[in-house]
Amino acid sequence: xxxxxxxxxxxxxxxxxxxHVGVVGSGDMEVLLEPNREEGAQVFITTSVxxxxxxxxxxxxxxxxxxxxxxxxxxxxxxxxPGSVLLRLEQAVEVIEQ
Amino acid sequence: xxxxxLIPDFVNRKSFIELDARARAQSLFDESTSKELVGPFDRIxxxxxxxxxxxxxxxxxxxxxxxxxxxxxxxxxxFEGAFQGGSVGEVSGAKMTxxxxxxxxxxEAGKPTAAILLLETGGVRLQEANLGLAAVAEIISSALALRxxxxxxxxxxxxxGCFGGMxxxxxxxxxxxxxxxxxxxxxxxxxIEQESGxxxxxxxxxxxxxxxxxxxxxxGMGLADVLVEDDAGKIAAAVRDCVHKGVPEKHxxxxxxxxxxxxxxxxxxxxxxxxxxxxxxxxxxxxxx
Lengths: 98, 289
Fold this sequence. Notes:
heterodimer; A: 98 residues; alpha+beta; Ribosomal Protein S5, domain 2; five-stranded mixed sheet; 33% strand; B: 289 residues; alpha/beta; 2-enoyl-CoA Hydratase, Chain A, domain 1; seven-stranded mixed sheet; 11 helices; 12% strand; globular
């Protein structure tokens, strides 16, 4: 198991809602997305698969190139692929912005 | 062209099995009466999984939702089959026990509160061993405390099924609702094969598994009460019926003598035929009340 953290200080838009999507099942993950108490956005990942820090970084760089909300994201991951990760993140954004 | 539309019903139905545990539980309640207790943002996770290199889940795979069903007070407790096989750990077990105890407290105070248990579970979470076993014991004693006051209704929809310690909980509930896809049994097929050999039970024989553990056979034998299609609307309607029926006159698990006599009367000299067993067991004074 590995814990990974990222910070995106540029993401400053105020968010008021929160979202919980996904399940920590094989090849899937859960996302908790909520307004951040600190400046900018923060990501905290707990994954059962070690050694994919660069892949996570690439996914979140891409996600925060479009999304600018000041959110705290917590992820519990059971081996989701980068594609599934992006889809789960987009699903969470859909929940807070609907 | 004016071709008649031949779209079968199952195309338009809303599958219950395809919903996750939270959506399943929510789908049972009257509109905008439900609220989740100890939800994912409360972050009550298992403290034991991370120590063993397993990612935890923020609700520990147990979802508790309170609200009204058919206008009556109810609490739904759902196990998420996709997370660690819906297993019962220290936290998920404590959530279920506490929810049942609160329902008992409310019921005793004059507000009968039915409990609906959505069980997709293999039983105790092996990573939490004794704590899981203790949790099952507590759940059983809490369910027994509630059932004289308000119905305890179990739903096994599939596809995980309900096995191990939690099958005991299903066994002592007031009503059990199953789909044809669901399975219910104390020992799962793999466990029986592993312990007693492939001659006893071939766990790769799906027809055999469903002929014994499947919803149709369980309801046919009177060991479960209602067989429903995999349809969220129909399952919610079946739950409403059970809530309105209230506490049964006699619970299945109270009919010890009846089941003892039935088991004693089984002829084990030859392989028991499932259809015959169903005919013999499903009499009106049997498990079906």
